[in-house]
């Protein structure tokens, strides 16, 4: 007696691995802050540094707490554009990028909401 087995589905092609970018830390330098990021591009880790000049903070174009997110977005744009991202890549935030960020923040509605006082007013 022959055993009938259902036809096995064809093997699936390997899924393209999603790129992940993680903030690792920063170093203060004479030029500004160097933000260390790790990008896993196609399964291969790449260590990238994004430099934010001191003037960006001094001129209030960028807040310290927002810089890591901006640097991750900068690297993600590089990856999404298909640019080569070699291990050890160093990127520098440009004045135009910082101005665009500041303008985008000015257009956002305030996330702070006034809190009522203790008496509910």
Explain this structure to me?
The protein has 121 residues and is an alpha+beta fold. It has one domain. 26% of the residues lie in helices and 26% in strands. The protein is globular, with a radius of gyration of 23 Å.
* Termini separation: 83 Å
Shape: globular
Characterize the largest beta sheet: strand count, sense, and whether it forms a barrel. 4 strands, mixed
Q: What portion of the residues fall into strands of 2 or more residues?
A: 25-35%
User: Percent range for helical residues?
Assistant: 25-40%
- Rg for CA atoms: 23 Å
List the strand order in the largest sheet.
1-2-3-4
> How many structurally independent domains?
1
What is the overall pLDDT average? 82
Strand-pairing-aware structural class: alpha+beta
Unreliable stretches: 12-16
Number of helix segments? 3
Order of helices and strands: EEEHHEH
């Amino acid at each position: 007696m022959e055993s009938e087995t259902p036809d096995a589905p064809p093997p699936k092609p390997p899924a393209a691995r999603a790129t992940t970018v993680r903030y690792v830390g920063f170093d203060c330098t004479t030029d500004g802050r160097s933000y260390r990021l790790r990008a896993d591009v196609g399964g291969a880790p790449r260590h990238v540094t994004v430099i934010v000049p001191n003037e960006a903070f001094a001129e209030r174009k960028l807040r310290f707490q927002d810089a890591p997110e901006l640097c991750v977005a900068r690297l993600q744009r590089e990856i999404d554009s298909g640019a080569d991202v070699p291990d050890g890549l160093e990127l520098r935030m440009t004045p135009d990028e910082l101005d665009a960020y500041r303008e985008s923040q000015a257009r956002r509605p305030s996330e702070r909401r006034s809190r009522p006082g203790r008496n509910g007013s």
